[in-house]
Amino acid sequence: xxxxxxxxxxxxxxxxxxxxxxxxxxxxxxxxxxxxxxxxxxxxxxxxxxxxxxxxxxxxxxxxxxxxxxxxxxxxxxxxxxxxxxxxxxxxxxxxxxxxxxxxxxxxxxxxxxxxxxxxxxxxxxxxxxxxxxxxxxxxxxxxxxxxxxxxxxxxxxxxxxxxxxxxxxxxxxxxxxxxxxxxxxxxxxxxxxxxxxxxxxxxxxxxxxxxxxxxxxxxxxxxxxxxxxxxxxxxxxxxxxxxxxxxxxxxxxxxxxxxxxxxxxxxxxxxxxxxxxxxxxxxxxxxxxxxxxxxxxxxxxxxxxxxxxxxxxxxxxxxxxxxxxxxxxxxxxxxxxxxxxxxxxxxxxxxxxxxxxxxxxxxxxxxxxxxxxxxxxxxxxxxxxxxxxxxxxxxxxxxxxxxxxxxxxxxxxxxxxxxxxxxxxxxxxxxxxxxxxxxxxxxxxxxxxxxxxxxxxxxxxxxxxxxxxxxxxxxxxxxxxxxxxxxxxxxxxxxxxxxxxxxxxxxxxxxxxxxxxxxxxxxxxxxxxxxxxxxxxxxxxxxxxxxxxxxxxxxxxxxxxxxxxxxxxxxxxxxxxxxxxxxxx
Length: 586
What we know:
Keywords: Glycosidase, Hydrolase. Helices cover 16% and strands 30% of the residues.
């Protein structure tokens, strides 16, 4: 099953226009270690260059280059011809992710720049292109080993170490172009309210001019049946409307909600009309679902939710952070479900929008987590905040996302236990996130040393179930900082205290089979039976602890030197899925 307007490989599946140009594939590429390219005007005359396969970075085998040494400045070039019949429309050049700073030129003219390796962005290149002719796009990507830029699990030294892997430099997500009307729908924010059977749409329009007399006509369907049709006047840049989606098309109301068991999605179609002429046509979808916390319990659609999550870092052996193709994304989600998990924690990565689409379609719960910085100063605060405030609105409409995780294990805020500045920074991010999205829980900071947080999450890699039960039987000792865990960490930072939040063990396990290279958590196991006994006892101990509302096992697959996945890096199972599933569901 897919949504009505699903297009394979379309890079932005929650906001679909059917006419688009895929710019992935072969580009010219050049290193610029001396950073002389701008002075030498490479944007006008590109130097002798090799080829690269976009969107794979030069560090990956899939790119066709496969050089892992760090190069701070890289350049890309390609030509494209825009159809003459699109003359008069705006040409919008989209980049779903470029790490870290992108500067763009078209036909030798500077277009603009964007900073931040994980957020999507675009340039309106209309003033610089000629329709019906060849046009040159040049992009310079500037990266660094600076720990004030959000970098997630990317290393900042020459070699991999601990849980930090080969860096990602340049274009690493899809590149594409669309030709659109000057007056168009810029974005739609969709907020479900299942208790009132309502969905709120917040439309942003662009290119409006006085006297245009535009109307937005919208159609909502479920399972092919019309639910609601509504119209509104597009007479200003921001327009909101609430729509009642109570209906009988999908059967009783509860059967129309989105959940892992029944991931119902409503298709919605938006037409911007000037008289009888369609000037913009966008397809989207939404899920009617509610995530809430009441009396120390996490509820999905007003019912208790026990979360069986798995840590997912989203790395592949030949393409690193970039999925090799859309089917690889689907395959990961299906494997996770087959092992009995109902969700995942996307760790230190803002994932491809197509992945979130398939989580929406298949009913996979997602914790969306920001890539960390590793220093704390004013520049790190600025960079982190700016990019996070781009990402949350970009991901807001996905029903699969049920939790925001801006910070993890005090990374980027290393003295948060007692440093007031670092504590206030995390408080600020918490409240800014809530200002955009008051409907999802926010975790600050995942693992330990929380400040303000809607959920108390704990990371503990203790190996034996008996040892876990001995430490966690007394809830008060854990949640009130009475005892430490995981190498002398405490649940709360100084000055903060437990106030009834749900408790989740959001990292545990990390069991690795015996190997001479690579690492896992604790002692390595020699046999499948030894693995299953350890996996079963620690999982059962967590599930037997009544105040714990869920868990997140480390992890889906091996990642470079970290070999504690349930799958190898090329997605081969180490243990039969049915045995993992039985333990998760027992």
